[in-house]
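Figure caption, in words: inputs first, then the predicted bound structure.
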Amino acid sequence: MTTHNRQPTTDNPQPTTDNPQPTTDNQVLIKVENLSKKFCKDLKTSLWYGVKDLVSGIAGNKAERELRPKEFWAVKDINFELRRGECLGLIGHNGAGKSTLLKILNGLINPDAGKVTIRGKVGALIELGAGFNPILSGRENIYNNGAVLGFTRKEIDAKVDEIIAFAELEEFIDMPVKNYSSGMRVRLGFAVAAQMEPDVLIIDEVLAVGDLGFVLKCFKRIDTILPNTAIVFVSHNMPMVSRICNKIILMDRGVAKFQGDEVGKAIDQYYTRFSNNNSNVVFDDGNLELVKAKLLGAKNLNNIPHLHWGDDFQLYLKFKINNLQIVPSFHVLIFDKEQRPVAIFDSNKEQYLLDKKDTYIEFNVLHHNFQLSKGMYNVGLNIYKSERRDPIMRINDLLKFQILHDIDVSPPFFLKSNFKFISNV
Ligand SMILES: Nc1ncnc2c1ncn2[C@@H]1O[C@H](COP(=O)(O)OP(=O)(O)OP(=O)(O)O)[C@@H](O)[C@H]1O
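Bound structure (adenosine-5'-triphosphate present):
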């Protein structure tokens, strides 16, 4: 955990001062201009470039903006500004450059080009255990980190009990941090970073290590401090991102592929990257054969059926019967982009006898005025001999479909409802 008021520039990417300045309310607290950082894929070559740069007096290859063999941009031309009350979500696939960008913001690594200006006190929770001295106790580490954040001993004294209580580490606070579990370290790290009320808070994926109770507590705390803080939040947890972020950057191989305040749109693009079109038969006892599955009334775009919000959902299913005497029990499930089930359609409980001559059965699953919010969904199918017993077939990703709507929202349902003004008493 570090704090600094740094202004690394293209010419001299170094922190300029360690004294946090008082900030005004509407001031930009984080300003990032054309920030770039490159790495080398091969350690030997990287060391060789380092020696060459040192000899020529050009630390970090500043004169050469081009990549040398085996180098790549981990972060390329990133620009943004953040004020108090704004929370920027940094999302993207593994290796997209999110943590590298955070580490530059926190002064852990220097950029190769560009400028970062941060005003005020910076609290950061970046790498698990980073900033802690493992041989010191939790309490001693609170004082160390508080001092690094720019607080006086008196100010830390006033906060220390709150921090320990928030981290729920009363029993273990005098134990060396090296004996803490990973969850305990995150608790302590977040408690120090957030309870000291920093102007800027930088949080990496580490929160994922905490148990659900603590994560919920952290988000409650973030809600409390957000009006007075600028937050940068890296996560792969899109529901969390959509809950707390009001600005977003979708990173892809170091560059900002999407940037702005349309958080839902960025999340949609993020999910699109991971969608595949392969249906997956998990179980099949051979009694039935799926012949056709089709969304009726849907328009096909890029091989994906599209429905508009509020359309009827009509799924047509046709099976060939190999060996069944009664119509089985069908369960159609709809999953959202996070693979959370959002709806289930169960077939009727009545059991119809099958005429031996029947070689095919067809079904229509119909739901009027389907109000799923915009985005991609997939359909799964479970078939049992009777009410959820004796499985016959289970298919994941039977088909995908996309709901179209003008408004991006993250909850799965966007319901049409009447807000009626009652009175102003
Ligand atoms: N010290 C380093 N030396 C060389 N390459 C590095 C170094 N640190 C990071 N990289 C590379 O930079 C790229 C971006 O890594 P980074 O950790 O920023 O990704 P990320 O978006 O945070 O990924 P994840 O979601 O997996 O945490 C990756 O290709 C990674 O291998």
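The chain has two domains: 28-274, 280-404.
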